[in-house]
Amino acid sequence: MRKFLFLALLVVAGLFLFGCTSGSKTCKTDGDCQAWQSCDTNKKQCVLRTGYCLKDVDCGGVADKGCDLQSHQCRYKSGLCDSDVDCDSWQLCDAVARKCQVKFGYCLNNSFCTADWQYCNPSTHKCSPQAGKCVDSFDCDSWKLCNSTANTCYPAQGFCETEANCEKWQSCDTAKTHKCAVKTGFCNNDLNCQKWQKCDDDTHRCVIRDVFCDDDSGCQSWQLCDSKAHVCKAKRDSCSDYLDCEGGKKGWQYCDDATHSCKASAGYCLADSDCSDWQVCDSVTHLCATRSSACDADSDCGPTATCAAGTCVPIACTTNADCPGSTCDATTGRCR
Fold first, then answer.
1. Residue 175 and residue 334: Cα distance in Å, rounded?
2. Which residues contact 61 (CB under 8 A, 6 or more apart)?
3. In sequence order, what are the beta bridge partners of 299?
4. Is the pLDDT of residue 14 over 60?
5. Averaged pLDDT of the chain
């Protein structure tokens, strides 16, 4: 109990010694004190300078003044004044009422603004356009202009605020550019499409260009669609031109435009049926060659020979007239 009483006495003594001096500290010169203090060299303590304060009571007990704890000087309480310097820059002092009043052209709240599209800007204390409203284009965002009649900001040419400002096939980029952008799956021009497509001016969708394809349905019955090049190509065993046939332009085949199939060119053969009865088709040169001497009938030997005992024998001749399609060998007396 005695210990508790001793501690209590120490606290009271501390308050008496230090609290009454309002945070004073020991000093030797004014430099040891705050700017609003001076050093009492007799007490060696910092004390208030003349004209400064620490509490409201230091202001002479005047009800309309208080101590500014930033500057430690007595100031009129908010809204009260002795002269204009006691008021904010947008106010002046009513010397009779000793109160700060709003200057002409400034505002305290929205009720001071006469237009319904204005509000009292708390930073400038002037009536300013509300968001989206304007006096001139400088009151609008950089992508908007001012309709000074309606005092309303609107998107400049080429910009948008909502999709209502864009075409049906566009969307409004409200996050960054505020410009109309092509919706996914639509196009503005051919550059928005693949090389094998073009942009349809009516639907603003990419469509297949002529001579190109997206699948086999875009080709002829004898063609298929190359999914990489997006062009129709002849199916196997079919042809579009001589390039699809064996040997190309100088080959032994040509492309039949009616059937779109490769056929043997004149003077060439694909099978024995392309040759005369007495000839066979050479599978290497694709040229018709005379059959071997073996025969069953004269028709197997050609016009310059006859079938005798199963062998083709050249026909005897005296003149070329005896050898249809050939000549007479005067030495042997046989058609060549």
1. 100
2. none
3. none
4. no
5. 85
Identity of residue 231: V
Q: What's the pLDDT band for 93 if we cut at 50, 70, 90?
A: very high
* C-alpha span between 126 and 143 (Å, rounded): 25
3-state helix, strand, coil in the chain (%, to 5): 20, 25, 55
**Cβ(176)–Cβ(160) below 8 Å:** no
**Residue 229 pLDDT:** 93
Give percent of the chain above pLDDT 70.
Answer: 91
Interacting residues of 303 by C-beta distance below 8 A, sequence separation 6+: 278, 323, 324, 325, 326
Q: Are 144 and 154 in contact (CB under 8 A)?
A: yes
Which of these, 59, 80, 84, lies nearest to 69 by C-alpha position? Answer: 59
Dihedral sign of CA atoms 109, 113, 115, 117 in order: negative
Neighbours of 299 (CB within 10 A): 12
DSSP string spanning 33-101? S-TTEEEETTTTEEEEPTT--SSGGGGTT-TTEEEETTTTEEEEPTTB-SSGGGS-TTEEEETTTTEEE
Phi, psi of 153 (to 5 degrees): -80, 140
Classify 224 as helix, strand or coil: strand
For residue 146, CA distances in Å to 137, 154, 174 come to: 5, 6, 19
| CA distance to 106, 113, 212, per residue, from 130 (Å) | 16, 11, 56
Tens-place pLDDT, residues 207-216: 999 989 999 9
53-57, 91-95, 102-106, 153-157: which range is least confident on average? Answer: 53-57
Per-residue model confidence as pLDDT tens digits over 24-36:
689 999 999 999 9
Tell me which DSSP letter residue 133 carries: B
Question: Do residues 67 and 58 make contact, with C-beta atoms less than 8 angstroms apart?
Answer: yes
Question: Contact at 8 Å (CB) between 61 and 82?
Answer: no
- Residue 82: predicted pLDDT: 82
